[in-house]
Amino acid sequence: MKAVVWHGKHDVRVDEVPDPKIVNSRDAILKITTTAICGSDLHLYDGVIMTMERGDVLGHEFMGEVVEVGKDSNLQKGDRVIVPFNIACGNCHYCKKQLFSVCDNSNPNAVLNEKIYGYPTAGLYGFSHLYGGYNGGQAEYVRVAYSDVNPLKIPEGMTDEQVLFLTDIFPTGFMAAENCNIQPGDTVAIWGAGPVGQFAIRSAYLLGAKDVISIDNIPDRLDMAREGGARTLNFDTVNVLQELKEMTGGRGPDSCIDAVGMEAHGTDLGNVYDYTKQALRMSADRPNVLRQMILACAKAGTLSVPGVYAGMIDKIPFGIAFGKGLTWKMGQTHVQKYLPRLLKHIQDGDIDPTFVITHRLSLKDAPQAYETFKHKRDNCIKVVMTP
Ligand SMILES: NC(=O)c1ccc[n+]([C@@H]2O[C@H](COP(=O)([O-])OP(=O)(O)OC[C@H]3O[C@@H](n4cnc5c(N)ncnc54)[C@H](O)[C@@H]3O)[C@@H](O)[C@H]2O)c1
Ligand SMILES: [Zn+2]
Ligand SMILES: [Zn+2]
User: For a disulfide at 298, which of 72, 90, 122, 252, Cβ 3.0-4.6 Å?
Assistant: First the structure.
């Protein structure tokens, strides 16, 4: 079959690879009908996530039709499903608490993960060997693990594009907003107006925020943020901290969401320092958004971090976070937990997730699509691909 294969930094290719096979009795094989590229894939593309290996198949936002099932799968051939990017066993201590992205059992590389984190976390599709080395779904077919627990069957009449983002970015934006513990009258500031930031804006309103402020430096992304009801700040043209203070009557936003993660841009001294350390592999991450959020947030506010971080970060003003009494919430999304609720929001017409799609391409165009999305060329916000 054809699949998008990681060959190294800034080198992905569409290769012929072996078809996936049922390995465990709870597996299913999916024929992919639609798949997407995520901002998280860009961290792999940029070579800043360790334990990728040449030959790994990328992709963790995918959906399709079931073509083969193991004997303990509860899916049937012909079922149309979306598959959460994080893999959960459904039975462990964490899965029972709906904390699916820290499942104890789904990471076949648990020993490596445990060595670094102290405890193993869930396997993820197409996201390095630290997270299990699962092949991803930017491909014609994919093996779905624990297929009796994870996939969501799609009600008849809904299109792929309406439901595809339930695999990741809609629940991710939603959990980021939920983690803010939004109270009536609250202002939420969101760094990053990429797909995750866009869904965080809409989710913050669904959860009752009064005001959302979106921060980025890409005009068409800020336009899309305004279409979602946010006020916007371009960090190239204004002093973000000063503006946020003024826009919130001198108090600061009640909560702040980092929808940027480990590859934040910027030109201030702190950011130049981060670029240098990351290039020399002395640091995994460029954390200048985290620094800004600590300074910007209202006292006793919440910092919510859906943006991915990979390792040690320094020059974080932790004493200020402590002094202001801030709460931190973060992590990979517990996608499965949010599916019934978010599917209903789509069915009820509260949100149409297709708003974020700017590029519809064929899987064979993936190398070019990664380049376009990485450099945000051609007003690219979200790419979906069909095999
Ligand atoms: N926690 C999870 O489960 C989860 C799931 C999906 C994505 N993510 C992560 O969320 C982040 C965003 O994903 P995306 O798909 O929206 O990616 P994206 O690359 O399309 O968007 C990131 C945006 O951040 C902006 N940005 C860069 N530096 C900034 C700064 N200093 N201030 C404000 N904005 C800045 C960029 O211009 C860009 O628009 C990534 O780190 C991704 O890995 C996490
Ligand atoms: Zn993702
Ligand atoms: Zn589990």
Answer: 252
